[in-house]
Amino acid sequence: QVQLVESGGGLVKPGGSLRLSCAASGFTFSDYYISWIRQAPGEGLEWLSYISSSHSTIYYADSVKGRFTVSRDNAKNSVYLQMSSLKAEDTAMYYCARASNSGGYFPSDYWGQGTLVTVSS
Amino acid sequence: DIVMTQSPDSLAVSLGERATINCKSSQSVLYNSNNKNYLAWYQQKPGQPPKLLISWASTRESGVPDRFSGSGSGTDFSLSISSLQAEDVAIYSCHQYYSTPFTFGPGTKVDIK
C-alpha cells in the first residue's frame, strides 16, 4: 500500500536550519511529483513546494522561496526539504504528499502523517 | 496567486440532514483546453492528515461514500453531504491545483447539531 513517512521535525531556534525527509513506499516513486504542505496550529493548509519526478520542475511558495530547498533521491524513494533561516511563523506540521497522477497539475491523494516543526527560542 | 474563500466558516447539521459548503476562487480554475476544473475537496479530522474526497470539482475518489458530491465550475464550487453521519464531523477544505502556487481554502468546520 502507498505510504509516505515524514521525519526530521523538532524544536529549532529562530534563524536555525532543519532538514525534513519523506520516505515513500508502495508505488513507483520515480513516476510521481511530490509536494510539501504545512499546517500551522489551528490554521489552514499552506502548499509550499513541489518537485517533479525527474527533478526538472520545482516550485516554491513565496513564503519559503530562498529559504527552503526541495530535493529528491529516486534511488532511495525519498524527498527532502532543507529549511534555513527559520522563523517563528514556520512553526507547523509539515506533510509530504503525492500527486494523484504523474505530472504536476493534480491534487495530492496520499499524505504522510506529518512531522512537527517548532521554531522557538 | 489564486485566493480561495469558503463559506460558512462552520456549520452544525442534524444527523441525516444535508450539509453544503461553498468555495470561491479569485480567478477561474477551468482549463478550457480540456474543460476540467482544477478543484479538489479534502476532509481533515483532528490529528489526521487531509483525505482527498473529490477531484476535478465533481469526481469522487475511490472509496468515498456517495453521500459526498461536488459541483460547480469556473470560480464557484460547492461540496454537499446529502445525509450527515457522525463520522463526517471534520474540517473540509477546497484546493485549486490550476496554477502554482497551489492554494487551499481556509476550511469549513462541520459539526452535529
Brief summary:
With 121 residues, chain A is mainly beta. Helices cover 0% and strands 50% of the residues of chain A.
What does this structure look like?
The complex is a heterodimer of chains A (121) and B (113). Chain A contains no helices and eleven strands. With 121 residues, chain A is mainly beta. Chain A has strands at residues 3-7, 10-12, 18-25, 34-39, 45-51, 58-60, 68-73, 78-83, 92-99, 108-111, 115-119. In chain A, β7 and β8 form a beta hairpin. The relative contact order of chain A is 0.31. Chain A starts with a strand and ends with a strand. Helices cover 0% and strands 50% of the residues of chain A. In chain A, strands 2, 4, 5, 6, 9, 10 and 11 form a seven-stranded mixed beta sheet that branches. In chain A, strands 1-3-8-7 form a four-stranded antiparallel beta sheet, with no helix packed on it. The model of chain A has no long low-confidence stretch (mean pLDDT 96). Chain B has 113 residues and is an all-beta fold. Chain B is 0% helix and 51% strand. Chain B is built from no helices and 13 strands. Chain B has strands at residues 4-7, 10-13, 19-25, 30-31, 36-37, 39-44, 51-55, 59-60, 68-73, 76-81, 90-96, 103-104, 108-112. In chain B, strands 2, 6, 7, 8, 11, 12 and 13 form a seven-stranded mixed beta sheet that branches. In chain B, β11 and β12 (103-104) form a beta hairpin. The A-B interface holds A 35, 44-47, 50, 59-62, 95, 97, 100, 105-109, 111-114 and B 1, 38, 40, 42, 48-52, 55, 61, 93, 95, 97-98, 100-107.
